[in-house]
């Protein structure tokens, strides 16, 4: 938490932590942003959205390394990924006990479900590039 407060790594939502009654609570500033879940309930996922997401997710992974943060604390559920003006923002949740790579796989399956099947490139990216990216990330992970 100290690292997040002192540096504001790019791509992460601003977070404030507080303790109360022996528990920790985290508040995220989502002002002006919409969750990925809400965004793709209203509209379909486009090819450009996938490109932007993958590029920005890669940058967030680099930021975690730069600031010595644990990548497994990045929440990848669509309700915890936010969007504003061409940029995706991620929640860093210190108590997370998830495996980022498993959550990434679940997220790519979600993307396939909300993809715009009328856009040929979106279908190609959703089924091919996301799976290829998964393979590359899996190799990078090991």
Features:
142 residues, alpha+beta, three-stranded antiparallel beta sheet, two-stranded antiparallel sheet, 5 strands, 49% helix, 15% strand, elongated
Describe this structure in words.
The two termini are 27 Å apart. The chain is an alpha+beta fold and 142 residues long. Helix 3 runs parallel beside helix 5 (120-141) and helix 4 (100-114) packs antiparallel against helix 5. Strand 1 (15-20) and strand 2 (23-28) form a beta hairpin. Helix content is 49%, strand content 15%. The mean pLDDT is 86. The protein has helices spanning 2-7, 36-42, 47-66, 100-114, 120-141, and strands spanning 15-20, 23-28, 34-35, 81-84, 87-90. It has a 3-stranded antiparallel sheet with strand order 3-4-5.
Topology readout:
Elements lengths: L1 H6 L7 E6 L2 E6 L5 E2 H7 L4 H20 L14 E4 L2 E4 L9 H15 L5 H22 L1
Antiparallel strand pairs: 1-2, 3-4, 4-5
In brief:
By secondary structure, the chain is α+β, with helices and mostly antiparallel strands. It is built from 5 helices and 5 strands; from the N terminus they run H-E-E-E-H-H-E-E-H-H. The strands form 2 sheets. Strands 3-4-5 form a 3-stranded antiparallel sheet.
Principal-axes shape call: elongated
The largest sheet has its strands arranged as: 3-4-5
> Main sheet?
3 strands, antiparallel
The secondary-structure class comes to alpha+beta
Report how far apart the termini are. 27 Å
What's the helical proportion of residues? 40-55%
String of helices and strands: HEEEHHEEHH
Secondary structure tally, helices: 5
Strand content is 15-25%
DSSP, total strands: 5
């Amino acid at each position: 938490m100290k690292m997040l407060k002192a540096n504001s790594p790019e791509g992460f939502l601003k977070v404030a932590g507080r303790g109360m009654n022996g528990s920790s609570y985290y508040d995220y500033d989502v002002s002006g942003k919409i969750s990925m879940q809400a965004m793709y309930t209203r509209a379909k996922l486009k090819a450009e959205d996938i490109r932007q997401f993958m590029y920005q997710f890669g940058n967030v992974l680099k930021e975690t390394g730069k600031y010595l943060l644990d990548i497994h604390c990045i929440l990848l559920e669509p309700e915890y990924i936010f969007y504003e003006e061409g940029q995706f923002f991620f929640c860093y949740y210190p108590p997370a006990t998830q495996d980022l790579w498993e959550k990434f796989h679940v997220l790519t399956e979600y993307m396939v479900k909300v993809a715009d099947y009328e856009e040929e490139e979106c279908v190609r990216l959703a089924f091919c590039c996301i799976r290829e990216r998964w393979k590359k990330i899996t190799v990078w992970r090991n």
